[in-house]
Design a protein that fits this description.
The complex is a heterodimer of chains A (224) and B (402). Chain A is of the alpha/beta class and 224 residues long. Chain A folds into two domains: 100 residues; 113 residues, Rossmann fold. Chain A is 49% helix and 12% strand. Chain A is built from twelve helices and seven strands. In chain A, the strands form two sheets. In chain A, strands 5-4-6-7 form a four-stranded parallel β-sheet, sandwiched between helices. Chain A has a three-stranded parallel β-sheet with strand order 1-2-3. In chain A, β2, α5 and β3 form a beta-alpha-beta unit. In chain A, α6 crosses α7 and α9 crosses α10. The longest helix of chain A is centred in the C-terminal third of the chain and has 17 residues. Chain B is of the alpha/beta class and 402 residues long. Chain B folds into two domains: 281 residues, Rossmann fold (3-Layer(aba) Sandwich), CATH 3.40.50.10420; 89 residues, no CATH class. Chain B is built from 19 helices and 14 strands. In chain B, strands 1-12-7-4-2-3 form a six-stranded parallel β-sheet. A four-stranded mixed β-sheet of chain B has the order 8-5-6-9, sandwiched between helices. In chain B, strands 10-11 form a two-stranded antiparallel sheet. The longest helix of chain B is centred in the first third of the chain and has 23 residues. The chains are: A alpha/beta (224), B alpha/beta (402). The interface between A and B is large, with 43 and 38 residues.
């Protein structure tokens, strides 16, 4: 299996990549990380650079075809699932939340429940776009007490970073992240967990509540 | 939009959202939604024939029909119908907002009296723009409104809803006897009946449709097969826009005022309008339809902006004139051009897709946005920061610089 980190976990929030690998190691998953991993093409597709995206995707496809791939990023996940088959070819991809659920049910990964109140933010690409709402929640509940925000699952409010908005209009992204962080604070949760590094980056940037990736949350005790 | 206006707007939207919540999940609503999806899809598949049928039947009923290719033609046609009047009464119309009708009439020396309370308040407040298609003053709170109305009427109006209503009503009713021409929109047009359906809560359309000349400006996309279909459309619109099952009023206009009470002889011009004139507006709609964009399924409920993350931080800057939010951005590409589309906020959308989930017609706006971005980028209308990301990816294989 290949662990495809995605740009944000590979370059910006490296702890997400580290945590993911730590969990995969704990569960004895055999995996490799590409030395020459490049962008999946998602951001180019969403910002209108379709032809450049196609080039980029073709390169990555050559490295991934025939392999099972696990991703950290909800954006990578949607691109591999929906855009690759149409533009370059099928990729056998699973999101980290789904793999973790699998590993837990096969008792390859064991978690200890703690007394911590946690709320979960559905990344748009994973939730509304691909309807994966349950896997991350089931994993979360193995570790902490899940409290839902008023707008959750398909009604989830976007964190504000997607579609190239964070780079083009950073102040808009930040204001949107504030709205979502306020939603989280209203639940009384100690931590806001999501499973898209780009959502983590944006939600964390407003500094209103502790924000963690799902993998970081599962290793919380180890970190402290 | 000012921060204070945005937070008032979001508060209003939250109240609306709560009010709608149960009704939107109601079995009858879901059935109606499915029916209306069928009605609107049929209409867009058969637009030309329905439009022809509508025009034929309206004319047969005694309504004058004008086809306008663009805003300028529509404005010219409307101006021609005013019979020299310099003051007209108007109800809320997003289509009029689309072609800046009031602004142009005023440039031509014709004063426009908005009769919808929210619209009238926004009209009194030059610096603000309508923030919701049905509740245009959603961004103003009680205190702001009382100040705006007091300043405009040049008298102290209490900071209390009833007093504000009374003051605005009194002012409008004082003007109304001097007005001979009323301009409204229509929420739906029934082709086989040659009839127009208008929805309102305040009773203002009932009043101004009885003026001597009633001019109706309506997009060609509003046409449906029958009056029954039209009623279904406006019922669903009302549910999504206001959280109520039915509006206070639904006016059907299919003819000037008439009677046949004396020996079955048809006499015109009893209480209502002596002339009814319909101006059908294309303004890019046909082109949009040819592109296959589903944006014309829209029934104008405004549900798409209520939970739009972008709209909740920008207000009406995200959108085009009175076509608010992402769907408005799409419309602007066809009403105007690609540059207007990018200026309206093509690249402000996070593509989260919540508007589609909120929309009773499930218009896939974020997908259309992606296609339009591709088109605009090919025309060189990309965002500079995105170009930097592209360069980073080409040089370093990552969206980030380091």
């Amino acid at each position: 299996m290949i662990y495809f980190q995605g740009c944000t976990a590979r370059k910006k929030l490296k702890n997400i990549s580290k945590s993911t690998q730590k969990l995969l190691d704990q569960a004895d998953v055999e995996y490799t990380v590409l030395d020459d991993e490049e962008c999946c093409g998602s951001v180019l597709l969403r910002t209108g650079f379709t032809r450049d995206a196609q080039e980029s995707m073709a390169k990555t496809y050559d490295k991934l075809k025939g392999e099972r791939v696990v991703v950290s990023c909800a954006g990578c996940y949607r691109t591999f699932r929906e855009d690759y088959p149409q533009m370059v070819g099928e990729v056998d991809v699973v999101h980290i939340s789904q793999l973790l659920e699998e590993l837990i049910s096969e008792v390859k990964l064991q978690l200890k429940k703690e007394e911590v109140k946690v709320t979960y933010h559905d990344p748009c690409h994973l939730g509304r776009h691909l309807r994966e709402y349950d896997a991350p929640r089931r994993v979360l509940e193995m570790k902490g007490d899940l409290v839902e925000m008023d707008k959750n699952r398909e009604e989830s409010r976007c964190c504000g970073s997607g579609g190239g908005v964070k780079s083009a209009y950073p102040e808009l992204s930040e204001s949107m992240a504030e709205h979502r962080a306020d939603d989280a604070i209203r639940t009384g949760a100690d931590v806001l967990v999501t499973c898209c590094p780009f959502c983590v980056l944006n939600l964390d940037s407003v500094g209103k509540i502790r924000v963690l990736d799902l993998t970081e949350f599962l290793l919380r005790r180890d970190e402290s | 939009m000012k921060k204070s206006h945005i937070s008032v707007m979001n508060r209003s939207f939250q109240v609306l959202d709560q009010r709608r919540r149960k009704l939107l999940k109601d079995h009858e609503t879901l059935k109606l939604k499915e029916r209306v999806q069928g009605i609107r899809a049929y209409s867009m598949d058969h637009l030309e024939e329905l439009l022809e049928e509508a025009a034929r039947n309206l004319e047969e009923n005694g309504v004058e029909v004008i086809m306008a290719g663009n805003g300028e033609e529509a404005r010219g046609a409307i101006l021609d119908q005013l019979e020299g009047e310099v003051l007209v009464a108007k109800s809320k119309s997003n289509t009029a907002g689309e072609i800046l009708l009031s602004e142009h009439l005023e440039e031509e020396g014709v004063e426009v009296l908005e009769t919808d309370l929210g619209d009238r308040i926004v009209q009194m407040h030059r610096e603000s723009r309508p923030s919701h298609p049905i509740g245009p003053a959603a961004h103003l709170d009680l205190e702001m409104i009382s100040r705006i109305v007091s300043d405009y009427l040049d008298k102290e109006v209490d900071c209390e809803p009833r007093s504000i209503l009374e003051a605005v009503k009194e002012d409008i009713l004082m003007e109304l006897p001097n007005i001979r021409v009323g301009i409204t929109g229509a929420n739906s047009v029934a082709a086989s009946d040659g009839a127009l359906l208008m929805v309102h809560n305040e009773g203002n359309i009932s009043m101004i449709s009885l003026l001597d000349v009633h001019i109706i400006l309506v997009g060609i996309d509003k046409v449906v097969s029958t009056l029954e279909d039209a009623v279904s459309v406006v019922k669903l619109e009302t549910i999504y826009a206001t959280g109520k099952k039915t509006p206070a009023y639904m006016n059907v206009v299919s003819s000037p005022s008439k009677t046949a009470d004396i020996e079955q002889e048809l006499l015109k011009d009893m209480y209502g309008a002596r002339r009814v004139v319909v101006v059908f507006l294309d303004n890019g709609r046909r082109e949009l339809l040819q592109e296959g964009a589903e944006s014309l399924w829209c029934i104008g409920c405004g549900s798409c902006i209520v939970n739009c993350p972008v709209y909740s931080v920008t207000g009406p800057e995200f959108g085009y004139r009175r076509h608010l939010g992402g769907r408005g951005v799409v419309m602007s590409r066809y009403i105007e051009d690609e540059a207007t589309c990018t200026d309206s906020g093509l690249f402000k959308c996070t593509l989260c897709g919540n508007c589609t989930r909120e929309c009773p017609l499930e218009i896939p706006t974020s997908q259309i946005m992606e296609l339009l971005r591709r088109e605009c980028v090919e025309e060189g209308l990309h965002i500079q920061e995105h170009r930097v990301i592209l360069d980073n990816i080409k040089k370093r294989g990552s969206a980030y610089r380091d």
